[in-house]
Design a protein that fits this description.
Blueprint lengths: L2 H13 L39 E3 L2 E5 H12 L12 H9 L12 E4 L5 H8 L6 E5 L4 E3 L5 E5 L3 H8 L3 E7 L18 H12 E10 L7 E3 L3 E3 L4 H5 L4 E7 L2 E4 L15 E2 L2 E2 L8 H6 L13 E5 L11 H11 L14
Parallel strand pairs: 2-5, 3-4, 3-7, 4-6, 7-8
Antiparallel strand pairs: 1-2, 8-15, 9-10, 11-12, 11-15, 13-14
Helix pairs in contact: 2-4
Protein name: Methyltransferase type 11 domain-containing protein
InterPro entries: DUF268_CAE_spp, SAM-dependent_MTases_sf
Length: 346
């Protein structure tokens, strides 16, 4: 067996070591035709006034200078760049950053996991959080814009990136992405544990002590809604974040510091549901939330508090099985061969 094949098997084992895979779960494999299918997108997922500015090329979103300029104008004018479906998401992410004591760098090495439109990237850059941002996605965007502020990488290149750089990032932000992984909505391979494998990928890319800002739908009931998304309740959420320390959470401008032991503090993490609509409570700000859902009610998948998660400050090898740890150490020492043609997922 070649060195490349050994590295391939060991990395997959580390990604899948979060939980025991289901019996019908198989590793992600590259698409044989090499094509990328266009994801289904609606205006609520994009910032106001930018829907017509997002282009498409062979299934990949295209980020133009006009798109980035439109987002910058909104930020300059003090307007929100949050998508209508998530009215205060950008503000919650920036507030969550204030709950991080130190990232170990003046301008942390930053990545965004899962992104159709660069509203998060623009907010991070405009507020001076990072000098440049790498976007990682199954359908990686094509960036037709001047400068080097934004870069993109296909999710399938995560292995090569890790082999060449090890744990490369101080800060990773993922909002409304992980809950879809493995359900096929965005033409990704079916995998009931796809979200857990994705979290392991993120964990590997974070340096010890690095921070993940994670937005996923949380509820008082664990559920998978057809093939659209998961709802994370008292069973699945602890499994999802088990390798991280939960420092705080932010929802609609409200901060709750501490871990899951404070989940029931207002605003509660385990938000109650009546059918598919949330009960009254902290309603989204803005006309969209009030006009469409009078009385402050909104859809369950909109309840996505930003979780501030820290990777423990210990060597990555300490959290992997022994035989994987040896390979991990080899990666850190530069002895692992880079594998540009292997994909963690298609």
């Amino acid at each position: 067996m070649s060195d490349e094949q050994i590295c391939r098997q060991l990395l997959w084992a580390s990604l899948r070591s979060t939980v025991r895979p289901c019996s019908n779960s198989t590793p992600h494999q590259p698409r044989s035709d090499g094509k990328v299918q266009r994801a289904t997108v609606h205006p609520g997922q994009l910032s106001v006034g930018t829907h017509g500015l997002v282009g498409w090329d062979s299934g990949r979103p295209v980020w133009t200078e006009a798109l980035l300029a439109a987002l910058d104008r909104r930020l300059e004018q003090g307007q929100s760049v949050s998508p209508p479906d998530y009215p205060h998401a950008a503000e919650d992410v920036l507030l969550a950053l204030t709950q991080v004591a130190a990232l170990g760098a003046t301008q942390p090495r930053t990545a965004v996991w899962s992104s159709i439109s660069p509203w998060l990237e623009s907010a991070l850059l405009r507020n001076g959080v990072a000098r440049r941002v790498l976007t990682v996605d199954y359908n990686a965007p094509r960036i037709d814009a001047r400068g080097d502020r934004l870069m993109a990488m296909e999710l399938g290149q995560a292995c090569s990136h890790y082999c060449s750089r090890g744990s490369a990032f101080d800060l990773i932000v993922s909002f409304s992405g992980i809950e879809h992984d493995g359900l096929g909505r965005y033409h990704d391979p079916l995998d009931p544990d796809g979200d857990l494998a994705a979290m392991r990928e993120v964990w590997l890319q974070l340096r010890p002590g690095g921070v993940l800002l994670l937005g996923v739908p949380t509820s008082d009931t664990d559920a998978t809604i057809v093939n659209g998304h998961r709802l994370y309740g008292p069973t699945r959420l602890p499994l999802l974040i088990r390798d991280f320390e939960l420092v705080a959470r932010v929802w609609d401008g409200h901060v709750v510091r501490g871990g899951l032991e404070r989940a029931n503090e207002t605003p509660t993490l385990w938000y109650g549901r009546t059918g598919r609509v949330m009960r009254r409570g902290f309603a989204p700000r803005g006309d969209w939330g009030r006009s469409r859902h009078p009385g402050g009610e909104y859809w369950d998948w909109q309840h996505q508090p930003v979780l501030v998660l820290r990777k423990p400050k210990r060597r990555a090898a300490e959290m992997l099985p022994g035989w994987v740890a040896k390979w991990s150490a080899a990666v850190q020492e530069g002895r692992c061969k880079q594998m540009p043609d292997w994909h963690v997922r298609p």
